Amino acid sequence: MTSGFGATAPYTVGVEEEFQLVDPVSRGLTPAVDEVLAAGDGSRLITSELSRSCVEMLSPVFASAADLARELPVLRREVHDLARSRGVEIVAAGTHPFSEPTERNQRVEEEMGWVARTQAIYGLHVHVAVPDGDSAILAVNALARHVPLLVALSANSPFWRGFDTRLASTRIKIFEMFPRSGLPPTFKNWEDFEDHIEALVASGSIPDYTWCWWDTRPHQKFGTVELRAPDVQTDASYTVALAALVQCLVAKAGMVVQPPEDALYNAENKWRAVRYGMDADLYDFVAGKVIPARSLARGLVEELRPVARDLGCEEELGGVLEIVELGTGAELQRAAHKRSGSLEGVVDYLIEGTAPG
């Protein structure tokens, strides 16, 4: 496959947001992606995903998260207007509170069987450009050690099929039923990654590397490192904050090389983040101490401020602190449920929050 590494300046950033398509009367999911794509008339802004009740927004490439912050509300409004022109609403949340789609991607269902029927889920993918393959591996390893905190910050799927799962991110546990999902293997360098992919292709397990759906992975075609762990965010400013954090972590990975996190320990912390979100106590297995997720987030923002200044996204990185103070998407959904007393009320809250104004 042709490599895109080095095609843009290092550390440019872009996002992919997967939106639910919802009937405005029933507030349930509706398989309307073909109609919304037709309304776009070939627009490169939107595409289809696993289910017909999902439309994915593909942002342009931005020099910094500050540029993304200016343009993302405009892009969302465009997708909102296309959906509204076909009589449906868009919703940004990791799962729908009470319904599931009935029509799915045929190729994926043939490959995955029943597992494909569980995938009424919606994620946020953040791409950051890197100069070459070895830089991509350093960045993947760096992001992997921070996946638990990134999951805690982005948790936005507490409801599923009509009940509160008591998880902050139900979406992550659903998606982990897919093969080659979850935390990535630790690769020594780009050659090590290529050998792994070639073995999977030769065995007939996958057609290419894009069928490795890890929480973070190199994306050779785009020349980026891709973070796939987050739930899609209801508030566009939360998306921007997470993108700024990822951009800074990738940039720092090119400056300071740290040993990879022990995968088993990292998985323990990821589970805590999935279950409790920002209320999780994450454990430093090297130092032997507990660090609350909120304290870890504040400390990481301070650590990355010099990198953010260099990238021109210090204000956007500071948005991480707003997530800490105001609450994650999961916390805000539960608050909306308490106010409205119904899951339909939660959907109304999500519709308004996805493309306000």
Brief rundown of the structure:
With 357 residues, the chain is an alpha+beta fold. It is built from 13 helices and 13 strands.
Features:
two-stranded antiparallel sheet; 357 residues; 13 strands
Label the structural class.
Answer: alpha+beta
Q: What number is the mean pLDDT? A: 93
End-to-end distance: 42 Å
Order of helices and strands: EHEEHEHEHEEHEHEEEHHEEHHHHH
Q: For the CA atoms, what is the radius of gyration?
A: 19 Å
Count of strand segments: 13
Please estimate the helix content. 40-55%
Determine the strand fraction and express it as a percent band.
5-15%
Low-pLDDT regions: none
The global form is globular
* Total of helices: 13
Main pleated-sheet profile? 7 strands, antiparallel
Explain how this protein is built.
The strands form four sheets. Strands 1, 2, 3, 4, 5, 10 and 11 form a seven-stranded antiparallel β-sheet that branches. Strands 6-7 form a two-stranded antiparallel ribbon. The chain has a two-stranded parallel ribbon with strand order 8-9. The protein has helices at residues 33-40, 65-84, 106-112, 133-154, 170-175, 190-202, 236-253, 263-276, 293-311, 314-317, 319-326, 329-340, 343-354, and strands at residues 13-22, 46-48, 54-58, 89-91, 124-129, 159-160, 163-164, 181-182, 213-214, 216-219, 224-227, 281-284, 289-292. The radius of gyration is 19 Å and the shape is globular. The model has no long low-confidence stretch (mean pLDDT 93). The chain contains 13 helices and 13 strands. The protein is of the alpha+beta class and 357 residues long.
